[in-house]
Amino acid sequence: MAHDHDHADTHKHAHTHSHDHSTTDIDWAEMAGHLESQAELFAPLYESALSWLGKEVTEPGLIVDLGSGPGVVSCLFAEVFPGARVLAVDGSEPLLERARARAERLGVADRFGVLAGELPAVLDQLDYPADLLWAGHSLHHLGDQRAALTAFAERLAPGGTLAVLEGGLPSRFLPRDIGIGRPGLQARLDALQEEWFAQMRAELPGSVAETEDWPTLLSSAGLKYARTRSFLIDLPAPPSDRARAYAVEILSRFRDTLTDELHADDRATLDRLLDPADPASLHRRSDLFVLGVRTVHTAVRPA
Fold first, then answer.
1. Strand pairing partners for 300?
2. CB under 8 Å to 141, separation ≥6 — which residues?
3. Is 197 helix (H, G, I), strand (E, B) or coil?
4. Residue 89: which H helix or E strand, with range?
5. What is the pTM of this model?
6. Measuring CA to CA, which residue among 290, 291, 266, 244 is closest to residue 189?
7. pLDDT tens-digit profile of 220-232?
Protein backbone atom coordinates (compact mmCIF):
# COMPACT_ATOMS: atom_id res chain seq x y z
CA MET A 1 0.00 0.00 0.00
CA ALA A 2 2.02 2.60 -0.96
CA HIS A 3 0.06 5.78 -1.51
CA ASP A 4 -2.34 8.71 -2.25
CA HIS A 5 -1.46 9.23 -4.31
CA ASP A 6 1.80 7.96 -3.53
CA HIS A 7 0.19 4.63 -3.41
CA ALA A 8 3.38 2.84 -2.86
CA ASP A 9 4.18 4.76 0.12
CA THR A 10 0.87 5.78 1.57
CA HIS A 11 -0.15 2.26 1.70
CA LYS A 12 2.59 1.74 4.07
CA HIS A 13 1.11 3.77 6.79
CA ALA A 14 -0.66 1.98 9.53
CA HIS A 15 -4.01 0.71 8.60
CA THR A 16 -6.93 -1.26 9.70
CA HIS A 17 -7.70 -4.00 7.21
CA SER A 18 -6.12 -7.26 6.23
CA HIS A 19 -7.47 -8.45 2.92
CA ASP A 20 -7.99 -11.95 1.58
CA HIS A 21 -6.78 -11.32 -1.94
CA SER A 22 -3.32 -12.04 -3.24
CA THR A 23 -2.25 -9.12 -5.40
CA THR A 24 -3.09 -6.40 -2.92
CA ASP A 25 -2.72 -8.24 0.38
CA ILE A 26 -0.94 -6.25 3.06
CA ASP A 27 0.51 -7.75 6.23
CA TRP A 28 0.63 -4.72 8.51
CA ALA A 29 2.36 -6.47 11.40
CA GLU A 30 5.15 -7.59 9.08
CA MET A 31 5.52 -3.99 7.94
CA ALA A 32 5.71 -2.57 11.47
CA GLY A 33 9.35 -1.57 11.31
CA HIS A 34 8.93 0.10 7.96
CA LEU A 35 5.80 1.92 9.09
CA GLU A 36 7.64 3.32 12.08
CA SER A 37 10.71 4.33 10.09
CA GLN A 38 8.67 6.03 7.37
CA ALA A 39 6.52 7.96 9.84
CA GLU A 40 9.64 9.08 11.71
CA LEU A 41 11.22 10.22 8.44
CA PHE A 42 8.08 12.20 7.63
CA ALA A 43 7.86 13.67 11.15
CA PRO A 44 8.57 17.26 9.96
CA LEU A 45 5.58 17.03 7.61
CA TYR A 46 3.32 15.64 10.32
CA GLU A 47 4.48 18.26 12.79
CA SER A 48 3.56 20.99 10.30
CA ALA A 49 0.14 19.43 9.76
CA LEU A 50 -0.49 19.10 13.50
CA SER A 51 0.60 22.68 14.10
CA TRP A 52 -1.93 23.79 11.48
CA LEU A 53 -4.63 21.68 13.13
CA GLY A 54 -3.75 23.21 16.48
CA LYS A 55 -4.86 26.61 15.21
CA GLU A 56 -8.34 25.21 14.56
CA VAL A 57 -8.64 22.65 17.34
CA THR A 58 -7.75 24.39 20.58
CA GLU A 59 -7.41 22.36 23.77
CA PRO A 60 -9.03 19.11 22.60
CA GLY A 61 -9.95 16.67 25.34
CA LEU A 62 -9.93 13.47 23.26
CA ILE A 63 -7.99 12.85 20.03
CA VAL A 64 -8.59 9.58 18.17
CA ASP A 65 -6.10 8.35 15.56
CA LEU A 66 -8.05 6.16 13.13
CA GLY A 67 -5.71 3.55 11.65
CA SER A 68 -2.83 4.49 13.90
CA GLY A 69 -0.46 1.64 13.14
CA PRO A 70 2.59 1.67 15.42
CA GLY A 71 1.60 5.03 16.89
CA VAL A 72 4.27 7.44 15.63
CA VAL A 73 1.70 10.08 14.69
CA SER A 74 -0.49 9.22 17.68
CA CYS A 75 2.41 10.05 19.99
CA LEU A 76 3.09 13.25 18.07
CA PHE A 77 -0.49 14.26 18.86
CA ALA A 78 0.17 13.59 22.54
CA GLU A 79 3.23 15.84 22.41
CA VAL A 80 1.64 18.67 20.40
CA PHE A 81 -1.56 18.64 22.50
CA PRO A 82 -0.29 18.11 26.08
CA GLY A 83 -3.75 18.49 27.59
CA ALA A 84 -5.37 15.83 25.43
CA ARG A 85 -5.97 12.13 25.88
CA VAL A 86 -4.97 10.24 22.72
CA LEU A 87 -6.53 6.97 21.59
CA ALA A 88 -4.79 4.91 18.89
CA VAL A 89 -7.25 2.74 16.93
CA ASP A 90 -6.13 -0.02 14.57
CA GLY A 91 -7.07 -3.49 13.42
CA SER A 92 -3.62 -4.91 14.18
CA GLU A 93 -2.88 -5.85 17.80
CA PRO A 94 0.90 -6.13 17.18
CA LEU A 95 0.98 -2.58 15.81
CA LEU A 96 -0.97 -1.30 18.80
CA GLU A 97 1.52 -2.99 21.13
CA ARG A 98 4.26 -0.98 19.45
CA ALA A 99 2.16 2.16 19.83
CA ARG A 100 1.73 1.51 23.55
CA ALA A 101 5.46 0.88 23.96
CA ARG A 102 6.30 4.10 22.12
CA ALA A 103 3.99 6.08 24.39
CA GLU A 104 5.77 4.57 27.39
CA ARG A 105 9.20 5.53 26.02
CA LEU A 106 8.08 9.07 25.33
CA GLY A 107 6.48 9.55 28.73
CA VAL A 108 2.92 10.08 27.51
CA ALA A 109 1.45 6.70 28.50
CA ASP A 110 -0.72 8.25 31.21
CA ARG A 111 -2.72 10.02 28.48
CA PHE A 112 -2.48 7.32 25.83
CA GLY A 113 -4.78 4.39 25.10
CA VAL A 114 -5.30 1.84 22.34
CA LEU A 115 -8.38 0.25 20.83
CA ALA A 116 -8.24 -2.78 18.53
CA GLY A 117 -10.90 -3.41 15.91
CA GLU A 118 -12.07 -2.74 12.40
CA LEU A 119 -13.14 0.71 11.29
CA PRO A 120 -15.67 2.16 11.44
CA ALA A 121 -17.58 -0.32 13.64
CA VAL A 122 -14.99 -0.27 16.44
CA LEU A 123 -15.82 3.37 17.12
CA ASP A 124 -19.03 2.21 18.79
CA GLN A 125 -16.76 1.28 21.71
CA LEU A 126 -15.70 4.88 22.37
CA ASP A 127 -16.82 6.04 25.80
CA TYR A 128 -16.88 9.70 24.80
CA PRO A 129 -17.20 11.67 21.57
CA ALA A 130 -13.90 12.93 20.16
CA ASP A 131 -12.81 16.54 19.79
CA LEU A 132 -10.45 15.56 16.96
CA LEU A 133 -10.58 12.49 14.74
CA TRP A 134 -7.52 11.94 12.53
CA ALA A 135 -7.66 9.46 9.62
CA GLY A 136 -4.17 9.33 8.14
CA HIS A 137 -4.18 7.24 4.94
CA SER A 138 -6.67 4.84 6.50
CA LEU A 139 -9.91 5.89 4.82
CA HIS A 140 -8.94 4.53 1.41
CA HIS A 141 -8.71 1.04 2.94
CA LEU A 142 -12.44 1.07 3.72
CA GLY A 143 -14.77 -0.09 0.97
CA ASP A 144 -17.49 2.53 1.44
CA GLN A 145 -15.62 5.75 2.16
CA ARG A 146 -18.74 7.92 2.23
CA ALA A 147 -20.40 5.70 4.83
CA ALA A 148 -17.18 5.62 6.85
CA LEU A 149 -16.98 9.42 6.89
CA THR A 150 -20.56 9.58 8.14
CA ALA A 151 -19.70 7.09 10.90
CA PHE A 152 -16.61 9.12 11.83
CA ALA A 153 -18.64 12.34 11.95
CA GLU A 154 -21.15 10.74 14.32
CA ARG A 155 -18.36 10.10 16.83
CA LEU A 156 -17.37 13.77 16.99
CA ALA A 157 -18.36 16.04 19.82
CA PRO A 158 -20.30 19.17 18.79
CA GLY A 159 -17.67 21.54 17.43
CA GLY A 160 -15.24 18.63 16.95
CA THR A 161 -13.03 18.32 13.89
CA LEU A 162 -12.47 15.44 11.48
CA ALA A 163 -9.11 15.55 9.68
CA VAL A 164 -8.52 13.23 6.72
CA LEU A 165 -5.05 12.77 5.23
CA GLU A 166 -5.62 11.66 1.64
CA GLY A 167 -4.03 12.72 -1.61
CA GLY A 168 -1.13 14.97 -2.39
CA LEU A 169 1.69 14.21 -4.81
CA PRO A 170 3.76 11.05 -5.28
CA SER A 171 7.14 11.03 -3.61
CA ARG A 172 10.18 11.61 -5.78
CA PHE A 173 13.61 10.18 -5.07
CA LEU A 174 15.63 10.68 -8.23
CA PRO A 175 16.21 13.12 -11.10
CA ARG A 176 14.26 12.53 -14.32
CA ASP A 177 17.38 11.24 -16.05
CA ILE A 178 19.42 9.03 -13.73
CA GLY A 179 22.05 7.97 -16.24
CA ILE A 180 20.73 4.42 -16.66
CA GLY A 181 17.61 3.18 -18.42
CA ARG A 182 15.00 5.42 -20.00
CA PRO A 183 14.46 8.86 -18.41
CA GLY A 184 11.19 9.31 -16.51
CA LEU A 185 11.19 6.02 -14.58
CA GLN A 186 9.25 7.33 -11.58
CA ALA A 187 6.49 8.84 -13.73
CA ARG A 188 5.93 5.44 -15.32
CA LEU A 189 5.91 3.77 -11.92
CA ASP A 190 3.28 6.29 -10.79
CA ALA A 191 0.98 5.21 -13.61
CA LEU A 192 1.33 1.54 -12.67
CA GLN A 193 0.72 2.34 -9.02
CA GLU A 194 -2.49 4.17 -9.88
CA GLU A 195 -3.71 0.98 -11.54
CA TRP A 196 -2.63 -1.05 -8.49
CA PHE A 197 -4.47 1.33 -6.20
CA ALA A 198 -7.65 1.11 -8.27
CA GLN A 199 -7.48 -2.69 -8.07
CA MET A 200 -6.88 -2.58 -4.32
CA ARG A 201 -9.93 -0.34 -3.88
CA ALA A 202 -12.10 -2.52 -6.13
CA GLU A 203 -11.23 -5.67 -4.16
CA LEU A 204 -12.17 -4.25 -0.76
CA PRO A 205 -15.29 -5.72 0.88
CA GLY A 206 -18.27 -3.52 0.04
CA SER A 207 -16.21 -1.37 -2.30
CA VAL A 208 -18.03 1.70 -3.64
CA ALA A 209 -16.55 3.85 -6.38
CA GLU A 210 -16.41 7.44 -5.19
CA THR A 211 -15.25 10.71 -6.68
CA GLU A 212 -12.41 11.81 -4.41
CA ASP A 213 -13.83 15.26 -3.77
CA TRP A 214 -13.04 15.20 -0.08
CA PRO A 215 -14.58 18.57 0.91
CA THR A 216 -17.86 17.54 -0.73
CA LEU A 217 -17.75 14.12 0.93
CA LEU A 218 -17.11 15.74 4.31
CA SER A 219 -20.08 18.04 3.73
CA SER A 220 -22.25 15.06 2.80
CA ALA A 221 -21.37 13.56 6.21
CA GLY A 222 -23.04 16.56 7.86
CA LEU A 223 -19.85 18.50 8.58
CA LYS A 224 -19.21 22.20 7.98
CA TYR A 225 -16.37 24.60 7.27
CA ALA A 226 -14.34 22.24 5.08
CA ARG A 227 -10.71 23.25 4.60
CA THR A 228 -7.79 21.74 2.73
CA ARG A 229 -4.07 22.25 3.03
CA SER A 230 -1.03 20.41 1.69
CA PHE A 231 2.27 19.83 3.45
CA LEU A 232 5.71 19.26 1.99
CA ILE A 233 8.44 16.79 2.84
CA ASP A 234 11.70 18.05 1.35
CA LEU A 235 14.84 16.09 2.23
CA PRO A 236 17.44 17.16 -0.33
CA ALA A 237 20.43 15.23 -1.62
CA PRO A 238 22.72 13.88 -0.38
CA PRO A 239 20.36 11.65 1.65
CA SER A 240 20.52 10.57 5.25
CA ASP A 241 20.76 6.84 5.91
CA ARG A 242 17.07 6.79 6.85
CA ALA A 243 16.02 8.62 3.67
CA ARG A 244 18.12 6.25 1.59
CA ALA A 245 16.59 3.23 3.31
CA TYR A 246 13.11 4.63 2.68
CA ALA A 247 13.76 5.04 -1.05
CA VAL A 248 15.16 1.52 -1.25
CA GLU A 249 12.11 0.15 0.56
CA ILE A 250 9.62 1.92 -1.70
CA LEU A 251 11.30 1.00 -4.97
CA SER A 252 11.80 -2.58 -3.75
CA ARG A 253 8.05 -2.83 -3.25
CA PHE A 254 7.45 -1.39 -6.70
CA ARG A 255 9.75 -4.05 -8.09
CA ASP A 256 8.07 -6.86 -6.15
CA THR A 257 4.43 -5.89 -6.63
CA LEU A 258 4.59 -4.66 -10.23
CA THR A 259 6.86 -7.32 -11.71
CA ASP A 260 4.39 -8.45 -14.37
CA GLU A 261 3.36 -4.93 -15.33
CA LEU A 262 6.84 -3.43 -15.60
CA HIS A 263 8.41 -2.94 -19.01
CA ALA A 264 11.52 -5.08 -19.33
CA ASP A 265 13.74 -1.99 -19.57
CA ASP A 266 12.30 -0.51 -16.36
CA ARG A 267 12.58 -3.86 -14.58
CA ALA A 268 16.26 -3.99 -15.49
CA THR A 269 16.74 -0.40 -14.29
CA LEU A 270 15.09 -1.16 -10.95
CA ASP A 271 17.27 -4.23 -10.57
CA ARG A 272 20.35 -2.05 -10.95
CA LEU A 273 19.00 0.61 -8.60
CA LEU A 274 18.38 -2.04 -5.94
CA ASP A 275 21.70 -3.88 -6.33
CA PRO A 276 24.06 -2.71 -3.55
CA ALA A 277 27.06 -3.74 -5.66
CA ASP A 278 26.06 -1.52 -8.61
CA PRO A 279 27.74 1.92 -8.60
CA ALA A 280 24.46 3.39 -9.95
CA SER A 281 22.33 1.87 -7.17
CA LEU A 282 20.25 3.71 -4.61
CA HIS A 283 22.70 2.42 -2.00
CA ARG A 284 25.50 4.52 -3.50
CA ARG A 285 23.94 7.47 -5.30
CA SER A 286 24.62 10.99 -4.03
CA ASP A 287 21.73 12.49 -6.03
CA LEU A 288 19.00 10.66 -4.12
CA PHE A 289 16.44 12.81 -2.26
CA VAL A 290 12.93 12.60 -0.79
CA LEU A 291 10.36 15.11 -2.02
CA GLY A 292 6.62 14.71 -1.60
CA VAL A 293 3.33 16.33 -0.66
CA ARG A 294 0.55 15.09 1.61
CA THR A 295 -2.87 16.77 1.77
CA VAL A 296 -5.12 17.16 4.81
CA HIS A 297 -8.86 17.87 4.58
CA THR A 298 -10.77 19.03 7.66
CA ALA A 299 -14.37 19.79 8.58
CA VAL A 300 -16.27 20.50 11.79
CA ARG A 301 -19.37 18.97 13.35
CA PRO A 302 -21.86 21.79 13.97
CA ALA A 303 -22.21 22.74 17.62
1. 161, 224
2. 1, 15, 16, 17, 67, 204
3. helix
4. strand 85-90
5. 0.90
6. 266
7. 999 999 999 999 9
